[in-house]
Amino acid sequence: MNRCLFSAISKNYQRLSSRRLNSVAQEPFLNGSSSVYVEEMFKAWKADPASVHPSWNIFFKSVAAGLKPGQAYASPASAFNSAALSNALGSISSQSVAPVDATSIDDHLSVQAIIRSYQVRGHLAAQLDPLDITSANIYLQQSEGAPSSPETVLRHHRLDERDMDREFKLPKNTYIGGEDQVLTLREILRRLENVYCKHIGVEYMFINNLEQCNWLRSKFETPNIMDLNREQKRLLLARLTRSTKFEEFLAKKWVSEKRFGLEGIEVLIPAMKTIIDKSSELGVESFIMGMPHRGRLNVLANVCRKPLEQIFAQFSALEPDDEGSGDVKYHLGMCHERLNRMTNKMIKLAVVANPSHLEACDPIVQGKVRAEQFYRADSQGKKVMSILLHGDAAFAGQGVVYETFHLSDLPDYSTHGTIHIVVNNQIGFTTDPRVARSSPYCTDVARVVNAPIFHVNADDPEAVVHVCNVAAEWRDKFGKDVVIDIVGYRRNGHNEVDEPMFTQPLMYTRIRKQVPVVDLYSKKLVDEGVCSSDEIEEVKNKYEKILQESFKNCDTMSKIHNKDWLDSPWHGFFGTRHPYKSDPTGVSEEVLNHIGTVFGSEPPGNFKIHPGLKRVLKSRLEMVQKREADWALAEAMAFGSLLKEGIHVRLSGQDVERGTFSHRHHVLHHQTVDKTTYRPLCHLYSDQAPYTVCNSSLSEYGVLGFEIGFSMTNPNALVIWEAQFGDFNNTAQCVIDQFISSGQAKWVRQSGIVLLLPHGMEGMGPEHSSARPERFLQLCNSDANEYPHDDYINDVDFVNRQLHDLNMIVVNCSTPANIFHALRRQISLPFRKPLIVFSPKSLLRHPDARSSFDEMVEGTEFRRIIPDSGPVSENPDSAKALVFCTGKVYYELMKERTSRGLDKDVAITRVEQLCPFPWDLMSEEISKYPNARIIWSQEEHKNQGFWPHMEPHIHTVLKHLGQQNRELRYAGRPVSATTATGSKFIHKKEWLNHMEQTFSGY
Predict the structure, then answer these.
(1) In this structure, what CATH number is given to the domain that contains residue 627?
(2) pLDDT one-digit tens code per residue, 409-450
(3) Domain boundary, last residue among 93, 119, 141
(4) How many domains does the chain have?
(5) Are strands 418-424 and 384-391 parallel, antiparallel or unpaired?
(6) 606-634 residue pLDDT tens
(7) Residue 996 has pLDDT above 70, yes or no
């Protein structure tokens, strides 16, 4: 019997030390040698069963009968019960018990340990590298005491060559025996080697779900489960041939063009098609894919079947005939519906456009998938799924990969399983993986969500196909992520004109000698008699002819069409309305009253809410009675009225359910019953659209990307991301730059995403003050030096034409009514633009930041500028100063003006919409006060905030009015390297100086 087993037994019985069972056994126990004690007692039992305590007698007899230690255990109390003891001993004695051989038991346990070693660590000894120059084990060897060979990795047990032909009973946690439960050790090892140490390395034993582990074992260990039939092999070769010939054709026709080819991992194409075939067979109808540049053109051509003419045209210098500046060909996306010939089902295939930030599209894809599942009512992800392709260096190096994985099982973000494919070139641009990551595998990040990881040699196409089928079945059965790591090589440099020998001479010496996988597999099938050499040539020639004909057709094209590369077409949205006419944003007072009343009422029934919330709800009802709204109420009225009109509203971000500043409370929590909530905006009307409000993970990059993807799917939805504090968008800047500000120009892709960014200098330090408005305004394509021509600015549709022609809308509202209209305008427009809202903090409860229902009812609209309506406006010629400002600083300026007695001397005008710039209204305001000094007053520092955007625009207005010599002054904080001070003393001093600059000298 194994000493480890004796040790476990003795520990289970140590608590009996206080009971003197017999004089023979007690002394060794008291000396602490418990395992020696048990072994001696076992020997004593073999000689005379009556010499040990009855409980040990039962235990040893049970073990000898084949029971496991846990099943054999009997408590001493029950053993002293004569009836129980008699029954137990009688049951055991009635069996035919062979004499116990401790060595045999130990050897069987060793076999089980060997099997488990293969299951846990077999991937470390697998033949994964086609170049045979590296493996995960090499990286492990860098650590002291790490395994150095398969023998030490897998067979560090007492069995040796003499045991090879002995038969052993297989444990239940393996499937290698098939129907045979007894195999020789030699056969056991052979089968384990074939499963775990050939061209597939399976990582799954870290998964803490027994059903999932057993399922995975069955998919790899069952004998002959990886075998393909004749037709499957021929299909695989045909797909591999297309993949290879496509890259060869591009290389021949455009020798010096970058294309980021797939040479070295051409097997990716049959891999993706296998996943799509199997998933289509299982019921999936829509596939949304994200990928970096490498292999994108091949995927578009041979997986999505995009017309080859459109791909080839991207290599030509043809003029685009529609909007957009476009992007390089290997960044473009597409959407296409076609028949899957393997399943005879129609499928939709979309590839999301992606910039050179290789993993930036990951959350975009997930958001698009989640949205499509939502609108299809596909609550289990059985109809829509995502496939994400990654490079090995980016998969390990980019933090958004981790952020995206952590969205995978969250209730309002899950897409019910993503299949990740790593196109593993074993190199970055020029960087060796040994200096690019700290983990043995580039895929180790996937372990955080218990995703199984299948490493597979790219030069074994049949192994690749098998893991792809398993991955598709896993995703369908368990609705969880899975990773396929296709280990290959990159035949050329990072791009086709790069020289890799500069930095990887040894690797590329080997690569130059490497036989392409299509040739390896062709020879294999010829040797097997699956097909002939002539048949292989026929397949090649057939596809070559298709390529040549498409190339010839491309010559007849005079222009390219950017719209052909749309990854998110909105069928039935464009062209059905006037391009500049918008629907009204005001609503009836009845609607406002109803929404306000429901929003301010306590939940029905015995729902117990927090006492503090009762006061909040009461104040809302009081506001409704007064016909006014604060910020939270106006926002709820905007949401509620859109829900009434059938528009889905989704609000996502950190702590958005309550609101970071405890103002929103869209989810009420029962105070005594866990997980019991009430969402008032979900109970406004019986036929309303759904309202989704969901707290997110503590992520900006990933979650904002997710919401952008969600917004791209359906134009008739209001999708909002709120930052906990405005400058938290810093960590999502890549998404803002690459998708929000430039997505339409590069990829003809519109999005109505709304960003709510809490902003305001309130003495809370640099991280809780500025939402960095200067960055957003700099990203706007507004020409500050060009005043619109008369025909444009005098057009009756000028306001909406401006919105249509610019890339983003940027607002900084000072009234609840304006945020109400701004949110509703996102849906009323006949097009979609991102909306950036610098939302307030202190104004959420400011007593003066209230709006009458009269500002939100029918006939009202968003106010781009709010002029001064006080005494100074009645006699504008006598005004000494015209102060322009934006946002919450207006209320501070108003209070200071009154305290200085300047209500008749200084006009204060609020600029609510910064971009598009309100040229017409600014001209009117400046003309209205001809003798006033013009001041831009802001609380942000001079090199930040709105001044860098407003100064050139206002100067252009003055020039247009013929008043270029009129002074424009700045009032506010001086330039600074940080957004705000953390000292309350300095903050107050800066504020006083700001007020003095604005109002001194009158």
Answers:
(1) 3.40.50.12470
(2) 999 999 999 999 999 999 888 888 888 888 989 999 999 999
(3) 93
(4) 5
(5) parallel
(6) 999 999 999 999 999 999 999 999 999 99
(7) yes
Distance CA 441, CA 455 (A): 9
Q: Which domain holds residue 11?
A: 3-93
DSSP 857: B
57 lies in a domain?
Answer: yes
CB-based burial label for 512 (10 Å; 0-12, 13-18, 19+): exposed
Name the nearest CA neighbour of 265 among 520, 523, 487: 487
Q: How far apart are the first and last CA of the chain?
A: 100
Q: How confident is the model at residue 153 (pLDDT cuts 50, 70, 90)?
A: low
Residues 288, 192, single domain; the answer is no
Q: Can you give the three-state secondary structure of 317-361, one letter per residue?
A: CCEECCCCCCCCHHHCCEEEEEEECCCCEEEEEEECCCCCCCCCH
Residues composing the chain: 1002
User: Residue 322: what pLDDT?
Assistant: 62
Torsion over CA of 78, 81, 87 and 89, rounded to 10 degrees? 80
Nearest 5°: CA angle at 311, between 308 and 312?
85
Q: Does the N-terminal peptide bond of residue 320 adopt cis geometry, omega within 30 degrees of 0?
A: no
State the Cα–Cα distance between residues 285 and 382, nearest whole angstrom.
Answer: 8
pLDDT score for 54: 67
Q: Is the Cα dihedral 299, 303, 305, 308 positive or negative?
A: positive
Q: Could you tell me the two tokens for 326? A: 């476009």
User: Interhelix angle for 533-554 vs 230-253, to 10°?
Assistant: 40
Residue 859 domain-assigned?
no
Side chain identity, residue 269: I
Q: What pLDDT digit, counting tens, does each position of 717-745 carry?
A: 999 999 999 899 999 999 999 999 999 99
Lowest mean per-residue pLDDT among 495-499, 809-813, 956-960 = 495-499
DSSP 80-96: HSHHHHHHHHHHHHTS-
Identify whether the C-beta of residue 471 lies closer than 8 Å to the C-beta of residue 443: no
d(CA 884, CA 864): 13
Quote the pLDDT of residue 747. 87
Asked if residue 154 lies in contact with residue 120, where contact means CB atoms within 8 angstroms, the answer is no
Answer yes or no: do 597 and 641 share one domain.
yes
Both 595 and 507 in one domain: the answer is no
| 620 contacts 633 by C-beta, under 8 angstroms | yes
pLDDT at 657 over 80: yes
Tokens 């300026």 belong to 893
pLDDT, one tens digit per residue, over 382-399 is: 999 999 999 999 999 999
Q: Which residues contact 670 (CB under 8 A, 6 or more apart)?
A: 607, 608, 609, 676, 677, 678
At 809, list the tokens.
């809308």
> Contact at 8 Å (CB) between 889 and 937?
yes
pLDDT score of 180:
84
Phi and psi at 970, nearest 5°, equal -105, 135
Q: Is the pLDDT confidence value at 156 over 80?
A: no
The tokens for 712 are: 């791209």
Phi, psi of 316, deg, nearest 5: -100, 155
CATH at 302: 3.40.50.970
Please report whether residue 124 resides in a domain: yes
* Exposed / middle / buried, residue 172 (Cβ in 10 Å: 0-12, 13-18, 19+): exposed
Answer whether residue 644 shows pLDDT above 90: yes
Q: Are residues 20 and 52 in the same domain?
A: yes
Kindly indicate the confidence band of residue 53, based on its pLDDT and cuts at 50, 70 and 90. low
Residue 246 in any domain: the answer is: yes
In angstroms, the Cα distances linking 404 to 287, 749, 929, 955, 985 are: 18, 22, 54, 45, 42
Q: Give the integer Cα–Cα distance in Å for 600 and 219.
A: 56
Token output for 1001:
């000298």
Instruction: Provide the Cα torsion 512, 515, 518, 522; round to 10°.
Output: 160
